[in-house]
Amino acid sequence: MATAETIDLNEAHAPKEASLHAFESVLHSLKNELIKLRHNHDKHEPEYFRAVSSLSDHQLGSISPSSLVLVRVGTSAYGLHLFGKVKLEEAEDAYIHVRIFIGAEEGTEGETEEDRVAKLHCIHTEEVVKEDGDHVYRAIFMEKDPLEWFDT
What we know:
Structural class: alpha+beta
Strand order of the largest sheet: 1-2-3-4
Number of strands: 6
Strand content: 25-35%
Largest sheet: 4 strands, antiparallel
Shape: globular
Radius of gyration: 16 Å
Order of helices and strands: HHEEEEEE
């Protein structure tokens, strides 16, 4: 299993053509998953999406290929792990962090970009327990927040 300890991510950088292509191929599922994730969290813990609570589903999902502003990539024996910072265009200083896995298309070795398929792994949600025991939840990050390894 890929973990922060077993995969070295490169330094954060502007997305290159291959990253943009992978992002574009998961864009439809990303938009659907983002809206579904907000609806699920709003039932139990609306703090996750409080920073964009004024946005409609349409506004929240108005993400385009140019919304991907920063990436980090790590390689494992079975594929690439692409972490991306995605600007939410309809909100000020609001980003989501996404994880995309890029592996070999079934029946290929995945040696060329055409032989690889990208799949949305997850959208980052964070729960931090403060020293006083209080919990802080978020799925919306700011430009200054670093793009780091995450599993959820």
